[in-house]
């Protein structure tokens, strides 16, 4: 089955002063499934993620999402359109509980907003209750039900990563951009993370994942490899592992 790409990068370049961090990067992310982006340190992965999510602008080229160029859109506008990202270092609200953290992911779906919440109207109370119920269901889905009432600062690394994922999920993503979601995790925690990513993908949410982790990358159907700001290989994990340019980039052999 072929479908229109959800994300399309065309000739994307980025210069920092005289240094070209990205050079004419082109690839597409199909709708549905899991796509991977790999590359040695300094190859341009974070720069590309920052361009896709709108934190920085490219020097050249275009990024199209759902068939439209999005270069003019802010980070917030992209996130409202379903382009939601996580960060290499999990960003959780330490002093909020787990369920409250997940609730913050849904802020864009709430109608009455902060003012009505402060005024504590019946409508805003109903909305907050419904948002909390939905967030609790998400906590259970991400194996965080038992710690939903716990302060986020008390969570170990594996649960922090799952919490970040749960919060991003609560933002109704169409394209979820995950930056090193397994970094700092044990093998068992990586397996739990992999299960949740498969679950998210099974619901029709498209995932683009940046990772060094070969075990985690095994779940990507298609992988693009960056080296010195260029795509040097695209294909399945088996194809990428056999590719001479990739072996040279990673192992120098
Ligand atoms: P990766 O995420 O693959 O490790 P990055 O995208 O962080 O790579 O960096 C790619 C290259 O661009 C590196 O050489 C890095 O030093 C350089 N770089 C990234 N951001 C900046 C910046 N704001 N100013 C100057 N150089 C930068």
UniProtKB/TrEMBL annotation:
<dbReference type="InterPro" id="IPR051120">
    <property type="entry name" value="ABC_AA/LPS_Transport"/>
</dbReference>
<dbReference type="Pfam" id="PF00005">
    <property type="entry name" value="ABC_tran"/>
</dbReference>
<dbReference type="InterPro" id="IPR003439">
    <property type="entry name" value="ABC_transporter-like_ATP-bd"/>
</dbReference>
<keyword id="KW-0067">ATP-binding</keyword>
<dbReference type="Pfam" id="PF12399">
    <property type="entry name" value="BCA_ABC_TP_C"/>
</dbReference>
<protein>
    <submittedName>
        <fullName>ABC-type branched-subunit amino acid transport system ATPase component</fullName>
    </submittedName>
</protein>
<dbReference type="GO" id="GO:0005886">
    <property type="term" value="C:plasma membrane"/>
</dbReference>
<dbReference type="GO" id="GO:0016887">
    <property type="term" value="F:ATP hydrolysis activity"/>
</dbReference>
<dbReference type="InterPro" id="IPR003593">
    <property type="entry name" value="AAA+_ATPase"/>
</dbReference>
<feature type="domain" description="ABC transporter">
    <location>
        <begin position="7"/>
        <end position="253"/>
    </location>
</feature>
<dbReference type="InterPro" id="IPR027417">
    <property type="entry name" value="P-loop_NTPase"/>
</dbReference>
<dbReference type="GO" id="GO:0005524">
    <property type="term" value="F:ATP binding"/>
</dbReference>
<keyword id="KW-0813">Transport</keyword>
<dbReference type="InterPro" id="IPR032823">
    <property type="entry name" value="BCA_ABC_TP_C"/>
</dbReference>
<keyword id="KW-0547">Nucleotide-binding</keyword>
């Amino acid at each position: 089955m072929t479908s229109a790409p959800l994300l399309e990068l065309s000739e994307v370049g980025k210069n920092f002063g005289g240094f070209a961090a990205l050079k004419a990067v082109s690839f597409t992310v199909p709708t549905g499934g899991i796509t991977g982006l790999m590359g040695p340190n300094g190859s341009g992965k974070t720069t590309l993620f920052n361009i896709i999510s709108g934190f920085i602008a490219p020097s050249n080229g275009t990024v199209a999402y759902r068939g439209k160029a999005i270069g003019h859109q802010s980070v917030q506008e992209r996130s409202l359109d379903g382009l939601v990202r996580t960060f290499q270092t999990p960003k959780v609200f330490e002093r909020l509980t787990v369920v409250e953290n997940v609730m913050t992911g849904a802020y864009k779906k709430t109608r009455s907003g902060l003012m009505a919440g402060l005024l504590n109207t019946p409508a805003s109370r109903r909305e907050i209750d419904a948002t909390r119920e939905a967030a609790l269901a998400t906590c259970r889905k991400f194996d965080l039900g038992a710690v939903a009432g716990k302060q986020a600062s008390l969570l170990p690394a594996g649960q922090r990563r799952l919490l970040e994922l749960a919060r991003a999920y609560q933002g109704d993503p169409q394209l979820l951009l995950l930056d090193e979601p397994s970094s700092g995790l044990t093998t068992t925690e990586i397996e739990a993370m992999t299960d949740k990513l498969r679950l998210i993908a099974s619901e029709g949410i498209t995932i683009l994942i940046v990772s060094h982790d070969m075990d985690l990358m095994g779940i990507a159907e298609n992988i693009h490899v960056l080296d010195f700001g260029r795509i040097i290989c695209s294909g399945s994990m088996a194809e990428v592992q056999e590719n001479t340019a990739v072996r040279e980039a990673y192992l120098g052999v």
